[in-house]
Automatic annotation (TrEMBL):
<feature type="domain" description="NADPH-dependent reductive aminase-like C-terminal">
    <location>
        <begin position="173"/>
        <end position="298"/>
    </location>
</feature>
<dbReference type="GO" id="GO:0050661">
    <property type="term" value="F:NADP binding"/>
</dbReference>
<keyword id="KW-0560">Oxidoreductase</keyword>
<dbReference type="InterPro" id="IPR015815">
    <property type="entry name" value="HIBADH-related"/>
</dbReference>
<dbReference type="InterPro" id="IPR006115">
    <property type="entry name" value="6PGDH_NADP-bd"/>
</dbReference>
<dbReference type="InterPro" id="IPR036291">
    <property type="entry name" value="NAD(P)-bd_dom_sf"/>
</dbReference>
<dbReference type="InterPro" id="IPR051265">
    <property type="entry name" value="HIBADH-related_NP60_sf"/>
</dbReference>
<dbReference type="Pfam" id="PF03446">
    <property type="entry name" value="NAD_binding_2"/>
</dbReference>
<dbReference type="Pfam" id="PF21761">
    <property type="entry name" value="RedAm-like_C"/>
</dbReference>
<dbReference type="InterPro" id="IPR013328">
    <property type="entry name" value="6PGD_dom2"/>
</dbReference>
<comment type="similarity">
    <text>Belongs to the HIBADH-related family.</text>
</comment>
<dbReference type="InterPro" id="IPR048666">
    <property type="entry name" value="RedAm-like_C"/>
</dbReference>
<dbReference type="GO" id="GO:0016491">
    <property type="term" value="F:oxidoreductase activity"/>
</dbReference>
<feature type="domain" description="6-phosphogluconate dehydrogenase NADP-binding">
    <location>
        <begin position="15"/>
        <end position="171"/>
    </location>
</feature>
<protein>
    <submittedName>
        <fullName>6-phosphogluconate dehydrogenase</fullName>
    </submittedName>
</protein>
Length: 299
């Protein structure tokens, strides 16, 4: 379908997707499934082939993609890339009066900076983040978080919800979705670093990843209830270590360091974490629980 043959038939239920990496393609695909007139654009041409076969409109330029929809969803690698697209004069001009939902991941500061730029150029702006893989988009498993003007969010919610899953508006502070995203990805990547490191140590001891897997899942399953319990501790400032004091945690971390280094495996991450625990103990909080380090780091 060509852009120009359709351009005059603007429907209210239309959407433009800028950025066709795995996530952008999944978003556009879900919009198509939802029956929306979906216009797509990507810096590198050719990534829209399957989408076009399914009825998407391929725009020859970002400005033309922007001009045909009231709602523009951006999903590229980071805000440098989003800026490279949105802040080109022809695109900025075409965006005036339209709404951008930026589902690109980056920092809260970049989200706030983009909101300032948007306000200066008459662009209505919502920020958001996607907390699940591209394969979940369009299914009940997808998780989206949003922030920015609530009225604007409500206005576009019917289209946004075509992406499936759950959508949570976290507040008017435009940086809030990115703040959640960073905190949640901090958990994810730190856990993944621990997992990769654990596999290296296990392998050095003759244990395969497959042999460890069921036990690794068991360890991961311990975490969700602990997250809930410790959230109460951190929010109230009481860090009870009755069941597992930080002195015991530090000792267990030292074993991991020694076992790793005995095999010549870098234990730098665990050394840093053990260092935090030792500092908490040195400050007289050895009977507190491990999450007391939150207060140490926050200082
Ligand atoms: P990538 O993060 O690899 O981003 C690829 C997209 O960014 C392509 O459209 C690429 O265009 C574009 N891009 C990169 N640099 C530029 C630039 N300078 N100017 C214009 N466009 C540029 O792929 P994803 O689609 O997977 O991710 C998109 C966003 O979604 C990211 O912020 C990611 O963190 C987030 N996300 C992704 C998930 C996933 O499962 N994939 C899960 C949750 C969030 P080109 O094709 O021309 O290179």
């Amino acid at each position: 379908m060509s852009l120009h043959s359709e351009q005059s038939h603007q429907l209210p239920s239309s959407v433009t997707v800028l950025g066709l990496g795995p996530m952008g393609r999944a978003l556009a695909s879900a919009f198509l499934d939802g029956g929306l007139r979906t216009t797509v654009w990507n810096r590198t041409p050719g990534r829209d082939r399957e989408l076009v076969e399914r009825g998407a409109v391929s725009a020859p330029s970002a400005e033309e993609a922007v001009a045909v929809s009231e709602l523009i969803v951006v999903c590229v690698v980071n805000y440098d890339a989003a800026d490279a697209i949105l802040r080109r004069e022809a695109v900025t001009t075409a965006l005036k009066g339209r709404t951008v939902v930026n589902l690109t991941a980056d920092t809260p500061g970049r989200a706030r900076d983009t909101a300032t730029w948007a306000a200066e150029h008459g662009v209505r702006y919502l920020d958001g983040a996607i907390m699940t893989p591209a394969t979940t988009i369009g299914t009940p498993a997808a998780v989206f978080i949003h922030s920015g003007p609530e009225e604007l969010y409500r206005e576009h919610r019917p289209v946004i919800e075509k992406l499936g899953g759950t959508h949570t508006h976290l507040g008017e502070d435009i940086g809030r979705a990115a703040a959640y995203d960073i905190a949640l990805l901090d958990i994810f990547w730190t856990a993944m670093a621990g997992y990769a490191h654990a596999l290296a140590v296990a392998k050095a001891e003759g244990v395969t990843a497959g042999e460890l897997a069921p036990f690794a899942q068991g360890i991961a399953a311990i975490l969700p209830p602990l997250f809930e319990e410790f959230a109460g501790d951190v929010d109230s400032g009481s860090y009870s270590g009755e069941i597992n004091p930080i002195t015991s945690a530090a000792s267990s971390m030292a074993h991991i360091i020694h076992a790793s280094e005995a095999h010549g495996i870098d234990a730098g991450v665990m050394r840093v974490v053990e260092g935090w625990a030792r500092r908490v103990i040195a400050r007289g909080h050895g009977t507190d629980g491990f999450v007391r380090v939150t207060e140490l780091l926050g200082r």
